[in-house]
Design a protein that fits this description.
Two copies of one chain form a homodimer.
Chain A: H1 4-11, H2 17-28, H3 35-44, H4 51-63, E1 68-70, E2 78-80, E3 86-91, E4 97-101, E5 115-126, H5 128-131
Parallel strand pairs in A: 3-5
Antiparallel strand pairs in A: 1-2, 3-4
Helix pairs in contact in A: 3-4
Chain B binds a DNA duplex through α2 and α4.
DNA sequence: TTATTTTTTAGATAAAATCTAAATCCGAGG
DNA sequence: CCTCGGATTTAGATTTTATCTAAAAAATAA
């Protein structure tokens, strides 16, 4: 796994303490957190990083394709520092968002002429742990 | 194409003038509009429908799976009244959102145990019309 | 019709993200 | 190491998107 300093250098971005903290938070928390969750996590560490910086950093890194942005239908944008091809699954019962491996043959080909910069494959439903349970809460 | 009255009946929803107007707007505008765009469109028609009603109606209809909600990464949620299986493509140059047909074999299978309620396959990039053009504006 | 329930409404509120402009930091060049 | 200029950070204001509230209106049931 690339460290935060290397990752920033590869993106051609200056190395700042704030950017490193955001990257390292995402590397430690593979839960697809929102900007707000990252901000609160850093606050608890007394990192002294402002909310605007968290948003700025996430925006800058995603412009460099150093992280994925996820709009998976439960409000705020979520972020994923692992950028190798995979799909996402969100459980309607427990709320967790899981990475789903994607094989090459799972990637849909678009008609000639489209230039793809990004693709997102999202599933919503009940995960194996929640699927068997009573549906009363639904 | 089902008319708005039939569509509401099929969902077990009361038939109101406001709901019919929202459904008919979506049937006439296959551009994947936002709630705000629908509201403004109805205002121009002097439909006298409030913003809250547009949001309420969209939420009610999507809970009944009578329409798709799209979070395709450019801000507000977008809506699509055509609910047969298809993917979406958003052009970074001209901004349009296109429907992309999906064959059965394009649908990825998840591992055993997952219960899928919804799946979304979104592509972002440059459409055939914009792909050839100068990249200066990017 | 009358009663009951559902829906609509305008405006207030909340949530998510961006903007602003002043302060601070980074790092290239000396 | 030090300085300078551009890049970055910051707190708070603002904007955007969506939801909440409770009273009024409309739809449905009796």
């Amino acid at each position: 796994m690339k460290n935060s300093r290397e990752l920033l250098a590869d993106c051609g971005l200056n190395c700042t303490k704030e950017r490193m903290l955001v990257i390292e938070y995402l590397q430690r928390h593979r839960t697809h957190p929102t900007a707000e969750e990252i901000y609160e996590g850093l606050c608890k560490m007394n990192a002294g990083v402002s909310r605007a910086t968290v948003f700025n950093t996430l925006k800058t890194l995603s412009a460099q394709k150093a992280l994925l942005t996820l709009q998976i239908g439960d409000g705020a944008t979520r972020y994923d520092i692992y950028t190798t091809r995979h799909a996402h699954f969100r459980c309607l019962n427990c709320g967790k968002i899981e990475d789903i491996p994607m094989r090459k043959e799972d990637v849909m080909q678009l008609p000639q002429g489209y230039e793809i910069c990004q693709s997102d494959y999202h599933f919503t439903g009940y995960c194996p742990e929640c699927s068997g349970k009573s549906h009363i809460l639904r």
